[in-house]
Automatic annotation (TrEMBL):
Domain GIY-YIG: 221-307
Lineage of origin: Bacteria, Bacillati, Actinomycetota, Actinomycetes, Propionibacteriales
Alphabetized PROSITE patterns for the sequence: GIY_YIG
Entry protein name: DNA polymerase-3 subunit epsilon
Pfam families assigned: GIY-YIG, RNase_T
Cellular component, GO annotation: excinuclease repair complex
Organism name: Propionicimonas paludicola
Keywords: Exonuclease, Hydrolase, Nuclease
Keyword Zinc-finger on entry: no
Renumbered residue ranges of the record's region Disordered: 569-595
Matching PANTHER family: UVRABC SYSTEM PROTEIN C (PTHR30562:SF1), UVRC/OXIDOREDUCTASE (PTHR30562)
Annotated InterPro entries: DnaQ, GIY-YIG_endonuc, GIY-YIG_endonuc_sf, GIY-YIG_UvrC_Cho, Ribonucl_H, RNaseH-like_sf, RNaseH_sf, UvrABC_protein_C
Amino acid sequence: MSPSPLLQPSFADLGQPLADVTFCVVDLETTGGGDADAITEIGAVKVCGGQLVGEFQTLVNPNAHIPALIAVLTGITDQLVADAPKLPEVLPAFLEFAAGSVLVAHNARFDTGFLRRACERYDYPWPNPAVVDTLALARQVLLRDEVPNAKLGTLAAHFGATTTPNHRALDDAKATVDVLHGLLERIGNLGAHTLPELLEFTRQVSPQRRAKRTMAKDVPSAPGIYQFIAELPGPDGQPRRQVLYVGKSRNLRKRVASYFTAAETRSRIDEMVRIATSVETTVCRTPLEADVLELRLIGAHSPRYNRRSKFPERQLWLKLTDEPYPRLSIVRTAGDGATYLGPFRRKEAAEQAMLAIYDAFRLRQCSARLSTRKASPACALAGMGRCPAPCQFTIGRDEYAELVEDVRACLSRDFRPLVAALRPRLAQLVAAERFEEAGALTERLESFGRAAARHHRLASLAGCAQIVAARRTDDGWEIHVIRHGRLVAAALARPGEVPQQVARDAVTTAEWVAAPSGPAPAAIIEETERIADWLELPGVRLIEIDGDWCWPLGIGPSAGEQLRAASLVGGADGSQPEAEGPDPATSDSAALATA
């Protein structure tokens, strides 16, 4: 009967608290350090939660001469092991003893190497257990001013071990147990409380990063944001505070501590940690507050080691200009009272949406200023019949104004006329097997639909002077106050507190926000989108709302799907099939908006 295997942690086990992990601390005595040398003694101590579970000790007949130097060092002689069992008899018993545990040794490579070779030699499968090396762990955790070296005797004295190591397997294993417990206490103070966190501490990291782990010492175990700070020379040569990186976490202490372990493998972050001189943290009451504060700090400081959300001002809008013969233009700001669609993250997306409108409506595309009294030269599009040529007065101002109003309605209220105008063209392209052109037209429609959905999702929040909403969590009720799409207050009503009173207090202390002059909310776009994500979560309850949080009927969360369905299955007669999926007016988001 083969012995039970040692612990090979599953994904569920990897999150196991260290207090629940069973460790088998092992030490071997051998005839030497080479592959051809043999084991002379095995000693092991099994512990869990600081309590002794069992001990294992046996001499082993190595079937070889024990060198005099080894005999003097360990006290194990040829005569002492002459009647001891041989390794094939001992190995199954040890594997059975260690089953279900994490293997621990001081300089574990030495001990596990002998055990692995023994399993191979006697046809026992090596169980490949999780291994903790107290030597490597001590080098990661302890500073040179604490201990001169990481020898077992030095560490045992440092941690006040009850057993003095003496080069006998069981005594050395007992001393290693005390060293292990001392090291676990140290890494617990650095935020490592589970088996994977312990294993990460044993991996090699650069000395520069390891030396800075004390920056995590005073970080609270709470949700919030953290900033890595450096004092770097400014233009005048004087040191100036610079924010290198901003992040968020539900457990600040645990997250910050991970930057100083091998768990962090990004090369740019390794460089950032070497430069950083301190870490600043801000505790937040809710995850949404942490999300928003992170975005604001990244936008304010543009930290060199952050990659996302650094340039919130890089947004584009599709504008219907306000001039005698309006046209479409891609602009960076929206706030002069004109009609806008957006924002767009990329210029290509804005251009695709603009082309969709040009495909459906014969709006002029030139950028020239047109006079209402004097004709201008016609462009090539006029000759192709794709422009009504207001420059040549071939269309009256009133008739052109009607065309502009159709475009305005499409941008601000309902894009279904745009789909209806393009469906016959799509049907013709598909019938002619011109699939690339049909695909390009469909892509333009979808780009417009996504932009319309995003635009009205943001505009609906920007138009609300105040929203007070709450959501129940394990910690209590998360409460947020939103004004014109900006988070102005966050609170947490813990069990035993009255959520309504906490909400009233939050409103009283909330930031005042002026109404925006255009379609953009009174916050950076990404902040309002994070707020919308939270508001649309299941279980969110509206406590108070001042304004209309709703979308136009023809534009909703499933706009892209509707457009694609209408585009690809439309008939040549322009009839409108029913789009699959939920109607925007009855979707979860719309239901929440009208609750």
